[in-house]
Amino acid sequence: MTYEILIVYYSRHGATHEMARQIAHGVESVNEVSAVLRTVPAVSEVSEASAPAVPEQGPPYASLDDLSQCDGLILGSPTRFGNMAAALKHYLDQTAGLWLNGALDGKPGALFTSTGSLHGGQESTLLSMMLPLLHHGMFLVGLPYTQTELMQTQSGGTPYGASHLAGADADRPLDDNESALCRALGARVATAAKRLKANPGDA
Fold first, then answer.
1. SS3 for 34?
2. Maximum CA pair distance of the chain?
3. pTM reported for the whole predicted model
C-alpha cells in the first residue's frame, strides 16, 4: 500500500516554497509514503483578473480533488498580519463540500509558515491555519520538544508547526534547525497517516 501526503502552500518570494521542499523530503523519508506538492494562485486586487490555468513555474495549483484523495495534509503560508495569506484562505473557503462529505475527517494535518521578522506572527499564523483543519475533523500533528532543534533554534521553530525567519527581504535561507524541523514535521505526518489508515479504529 502507498500513501500520499498533500502539501498545499502559498509562497510569494520563495521562502515558504523552500520549506515545502524540505517537508516533502521528510515525508518521503518514510517508507511507502510520497509527497504531492501543490500551490495556490495569488488573489488579485482586481476582481476581473484571474490566474493562468497552469502556473508559470513551480508545482501545479491545488484542486479540491487533491484534498479528497490525500492521506494527510500539510498547509503552508507566509504570515499576513499574524494570519494566513488570503490566497490560502480563499482555497480553504471552497472546501465546504468536502466538509459536508467528511473527506478529511480522521486524517492527519500539519502546518508551516515563514515571516519577515522574528516576532512577526509565526504562532498566530499557524493557529489561524489550524481552525479549518479542526472543522474538517483532522488530527493535528505538531512538533514535540523531543525534537531537540526546538530548544536550540534562535530563528524559526514552534511546537505548533514548522516556521522560518525569512528576513525583511525574504532572502534569508533556512538554517539547519529550521530545515531539520521541516523534515521532522513531514516525517511525523507521513508516519501518522500510515498508522491511521492501517488502523482506523485506533483513532
1. strand
2. 49
3. 0.94
